[in-house]
Amino acid sequence: MLPELPAVAWALLAVSAFVVGISKTGLPGVGTVSIAVFAAVLPAKESTGTLLLLLILADVFAIIAYRRHVEWRMLLRLAPAVVIGLGLGVLFLAVADDVVARRVIGGILLAVIAITLLRRRAQRAVVEHQPPQRVAAAVYGGLGGFTTMVANAAGPVMSMYFIAARFPVKQFLGTGAWFFFLVNVSKVPFSAGLGLITPEGLWLDLLLAPLVCIGAVVGLWVAKRIDQARFESIVIALTVVGALYLLLRP
């Protein structure tokens, strides 16, 4: 029931599953590498459903770690726009073929990288000149809902919003953990209905789940011990390569 893949592809999937765990508990944004790898190794649309279940598993670890640090009013403010964004994402996946989906995922990843770089270079300006709360919730919530449905790539988008809200670190991580858990769980019936969750994908998830758990535990340990700026630079470079591959792949 497992997909037939070369040894290199299996190795990349294993590393990506490990990275999924780390990204949820210690290094937000690193997960874009996993998105690129899964979409390159598996059929692009199917990759989103397969990766989704692994993300939910990692979300559980993040909730346990930061369960006491969540701003529920912020999540309620985002909810309407996120629902609209999810709906648009479902419609897109229903009509797009695998090639279009792969190209869009690659484009979204490049946009996500641009947002991340902008955040790193202009973080103070974002904090000091934040837009009105309702406008920000509508823009970031809608974009976050669409990108998470199409490519599981809402992390950097929502990070910008949480930074603009001036969240302390633990509140940032706790609110983000609950946001992505609730959104990812709500995506399951849509992904199943669109055929993105397959028997082969479920077996693959079962095989990779232990690596996600290990990565989540390691993420908690390394969060305070790694040079964040250098690590992010490496991750961004690898993600650019993965995104370009998706865009240029015939």
Walkthrough of the structure:
The chain has eleven helices and no strands. It is mainly alpha-helical. The chain is globular, with a radius of gyration of 17 Å. It starts with 6 loop residues before the first helix and ends with a helix. The mean pLDDT is 84.
How many H/I helical runs?
Answer: 11
Based on helices, strands and strand pairing, what is the structural class?
Answer: mainly alpha
Query: How many domains in all?
Result: 1
Q: Residue ranges: pLDDT <50 for 5 or more in a row?
A: none
**What percent of residues adopt helix (DSSP H or I)?**
over 70%
* Strand proportion: under 5%
- Our Rg estimate from Cα atoms comes to 17 Å
Q: Kindly report how far apart the N and C termini lie.
A: 27 Å
- Number of E-type strands: 0
